[in-house]
């Protein structure tokens, strides 16, 4: 236990040092650089003075990429008022993330309602697996964003189209993992249930579901990770609201500090979502 705690402290210290190193390299790379006086000829100096420009200021060459201090100011400014609403194109980061999480939650839930029952069917029935497998193998490799034009044309609503894309990308990992988990439940447990004449419904909920739960939750965890990746790209396409639209809007405003801030928030939210599913996975995992 003590060894484990010491290792964690070392890992935390090294992580902090690595972060400071990255920030230091970033600060150096974006620091203003001076042009030597000798590089400015007398004619150029006279021209600058005639144009009303300060030659000393012209000697400073600054990078357009935001410095760490600018990013820090942006983070403080955005987090100070995360839920402000000044119109369609100016909303706080909290509102944008809430819109994205809402779309992901709806699309992910719809995918779970479809994938888990069908996964059970495919896992329990070899015939159903052979019938549906060709369709799954063809549809599974298709990029979720490839469905966006069809969704926009048929649904004619950008928010619903974004939810549909989340539904599609969340469907396959949950479906395949559920089918795999159900198909690999130990035969001894199924034989015991058969010997005890347990009904099909009770066997599904009391024997197969607990046994396959770790694999099913793993599929849900993978699906959530993919959904959070895809929602950013989908919202860039459909616009309106959401963290993806926020990134695209800030890029159009040439506000790279806000773009970097949004990228950090995407990473933080994704990490929190993954940690939540990791806890669920830990809760349903059992020792065989």
Description:
It is a single chain. The chain has 288 residues and is an all-alpha fold. The protein is built from twelve helices and two strands; from the N terminus they run αβααβααααααααα. It has a two-stranded antiparallel ribbon. Helix 5 runs parallel beside helix 8.
Distance between the termini: 25 Å
Major sheet: 2 strands, antiparallel
Structure classification:
mainly alpha
Uncertain segments are none
Number of separate strands: 2
Mean pLDDT: 87
Layout of helices and strands, plus pairs?
Blueprint: H1 2-29, E1 33-34, H2 42-50, H3 55-58, E2 60-61, H4 68-80, H5 93-124, H6 126-139, H7 148-155, H8 158-183, H9 187-195, H10 200-238, H11 243-252, H12 256-284
Helix pairs in contact: 4-12, 5-6, 5-8, 5-10, 5-11, 7-8, 8-10, 10-11, 10-12, 11-12
What descriptors fit this protein?
288 residues, 2 strands, 77% helix, 1% strand
Summarize the structure.
The protein contains twelve helices and two strands. With 288 residues, it is mostly helical.
């Amino acid at each position: 236990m003590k060894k484990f705690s010491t290792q964690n402290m070392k890992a935390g210290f090294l992580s902090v040092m690595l972060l400071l190193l990255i920030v230091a390299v970033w600060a150096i790379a974006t620091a203003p650089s001076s042009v030597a006086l000798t590089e400015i000829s007398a004619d150029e100096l006279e021209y600058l003075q005639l144009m009303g420009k300060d030659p000393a200021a012209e000697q400073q060459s600054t990078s357009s990429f935001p410095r760490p201090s600018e990013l820090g100011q942006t983070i403080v400014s955005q987090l100070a008022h995360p839920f402000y609403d000044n119109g369609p194109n100016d909303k706080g980061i909290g509102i944008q993330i809430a819109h994205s999480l809402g779309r992901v939650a709806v699309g992910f839930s719809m995918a779970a309602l479809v994938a888990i029952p069908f996964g059970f069917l495919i896992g329990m029935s070899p015939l159903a697996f052979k019938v549906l497998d060709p369709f799954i193998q063809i549809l599974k490799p298709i990029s979720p964003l490839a469905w966006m034009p069809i969704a926009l044309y048929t649904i004619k609503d950008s928010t619903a189209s974004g939810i549909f894309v989340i539904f599609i990308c969340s469907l396959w990992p949950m479906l395949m993992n559920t089918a795999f988990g159900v198909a690999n439940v130990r035969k001894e447990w199924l034989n015991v249930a058969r010997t005890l004449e347990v009904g099909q419904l009770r066997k599904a909920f009391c024997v197969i579901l607990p046994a396959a739960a770790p694999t099913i939750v793993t599929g849900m965890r993978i699906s959530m990770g993919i959904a959070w990746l895809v929602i950013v790209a989908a919202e860039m396409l459909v616009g309106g609201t959401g963290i993806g639209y926020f990134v695209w809007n800030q890029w159009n405003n040439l506000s790279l500090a806000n773009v970097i801030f949004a990228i950090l928030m995407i990473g933080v939210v994704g990490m929190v979502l993954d940690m939540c599913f990791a806890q669920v996975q830990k809760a349903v995992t059992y020792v065989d």
